[in-house]
Every structure is written in C-alpha cells, then in structure tokens.
Amino acid sequence: MEEKDPDIVIVGAGPVGLFLAIQIVLRNPTLKVVMMEKYAEYKRKHVLRIEKESLETGINDPRLVKLVSELKGKTPTSLIEENFKALAGEIGISIRVGEYVKDIEALQKRFHNTRYFIGADGRKSVMRTQKFGDNLCLNYNVMKVAFCKYRVEGETSPFHWTRYISLVHDSNHTIYELIGKPKDGVTSVTLQIFVSSEELEKMSRFNFKDPAKIADLESVCPKLAESLNIWLKARKLEMKEKRIDEPKINPVPLDLYQSTDVVKRENGVTYAIVGDAAFGLPFFRALNDGLLCATKLSKAIVEDLSRRPQEKIRINNGQGKKKRKKSISSISSASTNQESDPMEEYSAFFKRLAWWEKQKVNSKAMMIGSSVNTVKVSRKVKQKSVRSKQRASSVQKRYLRVKARRDRQRAEEEEEKVVADEISSVYCELM
C-alpha cells in the first residue's frame, strides 16, 4: 500500500489519459489523481486534425482555455502530449514515468484504498484484457496504410492539386500529404500511403518504435520505395524543403474495434476504460472521440464520487465463497434516490458515440477506397498511353532506320550504275 492512496489511478499518460486527469482535478481540486506511464518519452509524433468540439469541456479555468485554444486544427500529437503534461504537473497530478503496469490486481493491492482505476493504456490495454476479458463486439480492418514522417526547417505546404495529380500518376501508390503547424521554426510532414495487404505483411517487422528507412524498403517493398523517392525528391526540389531528420516509415493497419463494456463495478471498486483502450477508429477519429469520452468520463467520476458514500473496498484473495458480480443497471437501481448512475451514463454515451462513428468511418472508407481505385485505373490508363507512345516512337524510329538504310542502298546502286555507264562509254570510244 502507498503512503497515501489516491482517489483515482489512471493507467496510461497519453493525450486522452492526461485530458481526463486534468478535467477531474479541475472539476474537483480535492481529488488526488495518480497516473502510471511506462514510457519516459511520448513515442508518436504524427500530425492529427483536432476538432474544436473535442476540446470543449465547460471548464472556465484560464489555463485550460488557453491550452485548448492552441491545439485546434492540424497539430502534432507530441505537442498535445507536451502541453497536457505541463498543465497536469502544474495542477498537482502525479505522473509516475517508467511504471509499466502488467497486473491490475497487483496495482489494486498497491493502492489499497483507491476506488477508481481507469485504463487509458491504448490498443493493447492491460485494463481491458484483465478486467473486461478483452471482449470486443467489433474488430475488423478498414484499410491498410503506411506513414512516412519527417520534419523540415521553417514552413512548408502541400502540392498544388495539379502537381499532386501528376505525382500520383507518376508513382505506384496513392499518397496523401498531412502538413502540421510550424513550431519553433520546425514543421512536421506526414505522407499517408495506401498499401496492399502483401506490402503491409512485408513491413510487419517495422512499427512506431522501430520504423523503416527508405533503404530498408528498397529490399522489402521496392515499388513502395520507388513511390516514396518520387514524392520526397519532388518535395525537396520543388517545395525547397530542408529536412531535419531522415524520413521514417511504419505500417499501420487501420482497424475499427470496440470493447463490449467500458465500466465495471467490483467489490466497491470501479474500473473503466477510455480512448484507444475502449475503441479504435481510423482517419484521425480515435483521438477526437477519445477526448470527447474523457470529458464525459471526468464528469461521471466526479459526480459518482459526490453521490456514492465512502464504501469499504473488499479485495477478493480467492478465499471463501465468490460474490456474484453486479451489473451497472443493478447498481443504479439500488440507489436510494433512484437517480441514474453517472458511470452508466458514460457507458451509454460511449456506445452511442461508437455506433455513430462506425457509420461515418465505414462511409469514409468507401469514399476513400473508391477514390484510390479510381486513381489506380487512371494511373494504368496513363501508363498504358505512355507505353503506347513509347511503342509508337520505337516503331517510328525503326521505320526511319530501315528507310535510311534503303536510301543508302539506292544511292550506292545509283552510284554504281553511273560508274558502270562511264566505263561502258569509255569502252565504246576505245572500240
């Protein structure tokens, strides 16, 4: 048991976990929040489009208002993490770096009197696996992409659409450009490349922690390396980019998944999951929706703590008769005032949001897939046209060579005839 147990323990100190912790403390400054983070440095540095609605909290604290005003639009995730972490430290949230949580039961024994354990620990959530049985009601792949990321000095911008179309036709892949906001004279550039299943499989050994370089791809996926070289060379020459670091490439299967449950009550302790631990969405929807859920969950936790009296926490050591698990609805109905359970409201909000986002993601995936297929057809038509012109040019050159040879032969024959006539005339004169 720790010297003084916190009210809430959050596993994972990424953007969503930090946003949740900040709101809990700002809504009720008397609450003590501890965060467990295994990484000393945030690993992801890609650019995301943060929507205004995702950062609306209803909290008028000037520090939070100023922070969220700087994070709207295209923003590197590393900047979001940095700003959130700075505010969390300022308001007294304890972030314990290097704490790799592998066992939730051991964590609960360590924080003996803590009543809320929240999992914000990403796609491979330990909290979801151990407390919710890793039960997913949705889990399928939407699209396969790879990200090529690098930073440049000063500002840069995407290609004009006419040049963009030209590059798409010249390369073997459809590529989207994502340009971040300049910060301290540096701009993040991300190229999103749509790849095939075979290419994704060949790149499976690369990830965010160990990304590939162009040289690595030349032996693994030569066509992908060729496409990236075309784009990177064009951006360097035409956009006058001065790269700070070497481009890094990692494959990303865009999966859509959803946990069946996100809240669980057990022996007086409440467990919940949020962000990528609860559901994953492609097309930069995951972080935006994670931030929305963090706001809803922060309200639910603060309200739940104010409604529910301090309960005695019972830790099941495997001895005695097992207690029957209570569902959220049964806990809610047992309330003396027949009030709705705030945590159940969070669960319902999550399920509504997940359903709605699933419709939008599937619709967008169809549109993007159609666009990518159209580009493929257009690229093949252009490449066929180029090959036809090359063949025509080759035939024309061959015709010209044959014609030149025949012309030379005629000239030689005519010259021989002239010589023969001259010899014949000389011979006649001599006779």
Task: Tell me what you see in this structure.
The chain is α/β, with parallel strands linked by helices. Helix content is 48%, strand content 19%. It has 12 helices and 13 strands. The strands form 3 sheets. Strands 5-2-1-6-12-11 form a 6-stranded mixed beta sheet. Strands 8-9-7-10-13 form a 5-stranded antiparallel beta sheet. A two-stranded antiparallel sheet has the order 3-4. Helix 1 packs parallel to helix 3 (77-90) and helix 10 runs antiparallel to helix 12. The model is unreliable at 314-337 (pLDDT under 50).
Task: Give the structure's gist in a few sentences.
The chain has 431 residues and is of the alpha/beta class. 48% of the residues lie in helices and 19% in strands.
Q: Tell me the fraction of residues in β-strands, as a range.
A: 15-25%
Low-confidence stretches: 314-337
Number of strands: 13
The overall pLDDT average reads 84
| Content-based structural category | alpha/beta
N-to-C CA distance: 135 Å
Order of helices and strands: EHEEHEHEHEHEHEEHHHEEEEHHH
Report on the biggest sheet. 6 strands, mixed
The coarse silhouette is: elongated
Number of H- or I-type helical stretches:
12
Report the radius of gyration as a whole number of Å.
Answer: 33 Å
Proportion of helical residues: 40-55%
Strand order of the largest sheet: 5-2-1-6-12-11
Structural topology:
Blueprint: E1 8-11, H1 15-27, E2 33-37, E3 47-50, H2 62-69, E4 73-76, H3 77-90, E5 94-97, H4 104-110, E6 116-119, H5 126-131, E7 136-153, H6 161-170, E8 175-179, E9 186-194, H7 197-202, H8 214-220, H9 222-238, E10 248-259, E11 263-266, E12 269-273, E13 279-280, H10 285-307, H11 328-333, H12 342-430
Parallel strand pairs: 1-2, 1-6, 2-5, 6-12
Antiparallel strand pairs: 3-4, 7-9, 7-10, 8-9, 10-13, 11-12
Helix pairs in contact: 1-3, 1-10, 8-9, 10-12
